[in-house]
Amino acid sequence: xxxxxxxxxxxxxxxxRYCPGCGHSLxxxxxxxxxxxxxxxxxxxxxxxxxxxxxxxxxxxFDILESAHGRPPAVATALKRVMPxxxxxxxxxxxxxxxxxxxxxxxxxxxxxxxxxxxxNNANYGMTGGQMAPTTILGQRTTTTPGGRSAATxxxxxxxxxxxxxxxxxxxxxxxxxxxxxxxxxxxxAISRAFRGQMEGRGFSLVEILSPCPTDWGFSPKASLExxxxxxxxxxxxxxxKDRDKGI
Amino acid sequence: MAKVVAVTGNEAVAxxxxxxxxxxxxxxxxxxxxxxxxxxxxxxNNGKVDTEAVLVESEHSSMSACIGASAAGGRVxxxxxxxxxxxxxxxxxxxxxxRLPIIMPVVxxxxxxxxxxxxxxxxxxxxxxxxxxxxxxxNGQEAYDNTIQAFRIGEHMDIRLPAMVxxxxxxxxxxxxRMEYLEDAxxxxxxxxxxxxxxxxxxxxxxxxxxxxxTDLFHEYKRAQHEVMTKVKGVxxxxxxxxxxxxxRKYGLFESYRLEDADxxxxxxxSAAGTSKDVVDAFRxxxxxxxxxxxxxxxxxxxxxxxxxxxxxxxxxVMDRADSFGGYGPLFMxxxxxxxxxxxxxxxxxxxxxxxxRDYLPSHAELVLNELDGIAKGGKINVFKEYIGVRE
Lengths: 248, 392
Ligand SMILES: Cc1ncc(C[n+]2csc(CCOP(=O)(O)OP(=O)(O)O)c2C)c(N)n1
Ligand code: SF4
Fold this sequence. Notes:
The complex is a heterodimer of chains A (248) and B (392).
Chain A: H1 23-38, E1 44-48, E2 63-66, H2 72-82, E3 87-93, H3 94-100, H4 102-110, E4 116-121, H5 151-154, H6 160-165, E5 170-177, H7 181-199, E6 204-210, H8 214-217, H9 221-235, E7 239-243
Chain B: E1 3-8, H1 9-20, E2 24-27, H2 34-45, E3 52-55, H3 59-72, E4 76-78, H4 82-87, H5 89-97, E5 103-108, H6 122-126, E6 133-136, H7 140-155, E7 163-168, E8 176-181, H8 184-191, H9 218-247, E9 254-257, E10 264-268, H10 271-285, E11 290-295, E12 297-299, H11 303-310, E13 315-320, H12 330-340, E14 347-352, H13 362-376, E15 385-387
Parallel strand pairs in B: 2-3, 2-4, 5-7, 6-7, 10-11, 10-13, 13-14, 14-15
Antiparallel strand pairs in B: 1-8, 6-12, 9-11
The complex binds thiamine diphosphate and iron/sulfur cluster.
Iron/sulfur cluster is lined by residues 18-19, 22, 24, 52, 122, 126-127, 213-216 of chain A.
């Protein structure tokens, strides 16, 4: 019988050690599939964040550079500029990209750097144990907002994709989610599109992925997907925020 | 009446902060400090303190927020570790230059790269020259006691300097020990009401913090910082004396362990000092006069007192859990400077141990004490600086 399904070559043959139901495993898989399909595995360098995905080098079967917390966009900029023929992506959590590294991502977008950014929004700092992130939604309980995030004391959730879409240098910005099969398929298309944009020299692209963190949210994997659907998506609607080619 | 508890180092320090109930705290997570300020966040949520928490987006912002709150006239705390402390570097100098008595527990952890979350002293040693007072703690009890005393020291009207209280990441921050808590009222009375000095928003006396000062007065400004540091030792001892009356626990500028008649001695910070004391005892049982000096106040460093404590020894090893690559370990350099002033000095060697949380074992202390014993008996020094406990 014809072989129809295999592990992507861009993933090592080791099991994921992320928590059960964690979005990171799925997102790694989607990125790896896209890289295989585009035939760029030998040209890719990924930048790992500080956060749960610090361990991505254990799984991706290509070169990874580990950077300081929040600095991947600056590191990606430099890599791409010295090796323009390579495909450079950064993989960042919402703590990495939307808290400590907010300035880096804004300026990389404003400079229109020809890089691809995968932004994993799980509405908290996963690795350190579920503290409030700028992306935490109002009322959400975290270990530093045990009574729920309140706008009066902790301010409002930061919508990074909408923010970056206002920047002229950004070429493609899309928010996707992992809560249904359809959404996962759309996420893969967006990831592929972000890579293709870079291959065609279109400039800065970012895909924001709403991703479950069952452990720190305190929900089952299934209930976590439900929470993305019923709570997170209200604050973070999915869709294309910017597509310069299509005039969006 | 003291309350006996079994808690982790992080829990104990969070409790000390709760008892002090500062006005403002900056909160931003980093392993292994995270759970200390997380505990504090639940104290706030449960109404146990009336601290204003600022959940910031990085350590740089956390220290900046603390600077603002302290200049406004509040009693202010934050806590950090490792790269978090490194990211604060710019603001650390501003806090001390502005003479703002911010109190900051530092849960010591290695610096990147390679990435490592475990305990060593590279972070605080990197902040050695930032103008902060540094107090180091062997165990959870000392971390708790030092945190309470740090408020009195930093806020003292003759001092007004920020202070960090250091303890070993994981080894102390996450291990459960038996310790004694003071009563809330005792702590409250001991630290006293926070007293303002030159707060902002005093409409009758408007003022600026941190203005541009160039060649005309900058040098004098820095000399003033040097001079205030010379007064810290006296205040540390005065506060320790009062703390002893309250708690029965004795503190000094450093701890001398079986040092009075010692021929050989280790100088060693924090938790590894505890491990080494047992080995010192074993050497004493064998008739070898071993001793130990555990620094407590590292900034300002008590040079004369350390020299006096070590002057009758024959051979000393300074043990560093951090390295100044291309130089000696940072603690070694201090002890070496202290001993230089003596007419007759002990032989001095430096060992680097336990980086990135590598276990420090009694057998390591034994190896070093044996080497010192040989040197004290006339053997020659083979190597001045050496890494121990290395996997070859
Ligand atoms: C300078 C600095 N400050 C703090 C930390 C501690 N830290 C490690 S991971 C992390 C948050 C990660 O959260 P996120 O980026 O959302 O990733 P997730 O773990 O949720 O995937 C923090 C604050 C650090 N490593 N470096
Ligand atoms: S803590 Fe959350 S983000 Fe981290 S691996 Fe677990 S589920 Fe995933």
